Amino acid sequence: MTLTQDKNDLLRHENSESSISRRRFLTLGSIAALAGIFPCKVFGSPVGISQPERSLAFYNTHTGEQLRTVYWVQGNYLEDSLGEINHILRDHLTNEIKDIDTRLLDLLFAIGNELETQQPFQVISGYRSPETNAFLRAHSTGVAEHSLHLVGKAIDIRAPGRDLRVLQKTAVALKGGGVGYYPKSDFVHVDVGRVRYW
Predict the structure, then answer these.
(1) Which of 24, 74, 113, 183 has a CA that sits 20 to 30 A from residue 52's CA?
(2) What's the first-to-final CA gap in the chain, in angstroms?
(3) pLDDT above 80: residue 47
(4) Interatomic CA distance for residues 99 and 127, integer angstroms
(5) 10 Å Cβ neighbour count for 41?
(6) Beta bridge partners of 121
(7) Can you give the pLDDT at residue 46?
(8) Percentage of the chain surpassing pLDDT 90?
(9) pLDDT value at position 12?
């Protein structure tokens, strides 16, 4: 695939229903209530009852790379695993790598748990270099000048086997940051900035 084709694919993603069941809604509500009562290390997992390890799986839609890794064990983030995650979520146009905020990883872990899936997240955009962000801003709409992708705090994803609207509603219910819904481009934006929705 040429760089021009790759940029065109990325632009298509940038330019472009089912509902949560009552049971899932009540579950998410309970988790939100617990999160407000107890200090949390990960969304929906109060201290003392969290899992002994956290893992994530990714499929980069631009490079075809896949990764499944345990990134946190008994209170500690694993540096080697974080390095692998930083690599697969790099800017695929410039190959620039940035540290991904661990809060974003924990949010993705919580989303995966709520969706009850072990399938890898399909990654449309992880870290985005200033060069790539400027290119996207010049050729499409809806790209923020100071995007949280620039600082490793945002990701655009799909969840295989799960409706895009369900993914969006699950992310919104966790209140971990911003959530953008892009049905025409077939992805959901998730970040760990302030809580807001579009």
Answers:
(1) 24
(2) 32
(3) no
(4) 8
(5) 14
(6) 58
(7) 39
(8) 68
(9) 58
16-30 per-position pLDDT tens digit: 433 344 444 444 444
| Gap between the Cα atoms of 127 and 135, Å rounded | 14
DSSP calls for 41-109: EETTEETTSS-SEEEEEEEETTT--EEEEEEEETTEE-HHHHHHHHHHTS-TTT----PPPHHHHHHHH
* Per-residue b or e along 178-193, where b marks 16 or more CB atoms closer than 10 Å to that residue's CB: bbbbbeebebbbbbbe
Sheet holding 53-60, edge to edge: 76-77, 66-73, 53-60, 121-125, 154-158, 187-191, 178-182, 196-197
Map tokens 């499944």 to a residue: 68
- CATH architecture for segment(s) 3-18+50-197: 2-Layer Sandwich (3.30)
Domain boundaries, the chain: 3-18+50-197
In this structure, what token pair is assigned to residue 155?
Answer: 């990701």
What is the distance between the alpha carbons of residues 54 and 71, in angstroms, rounded to a whole number? 6
Q: CA-CA distance, 164 to 157, in Å (whole number)?
A: 9
Band (122; pLDDT cuts 50, 70, 90): very high
Quick check: 188 pLDDT over 70?
yes
Give pLDDT, residue 169: 98
Q: What is the largest CA-CA distance in the chain?
A: 51
Per-state percent for the chain, helix, strand, coil, to nearest 5 = 40, 25, 40
Task: Name the burial class of residue 76, with classes exposed (0-12), middle (13-18) and buried (19+) by CB atoms within 10 angstroms of its CB.
Answer: exposed
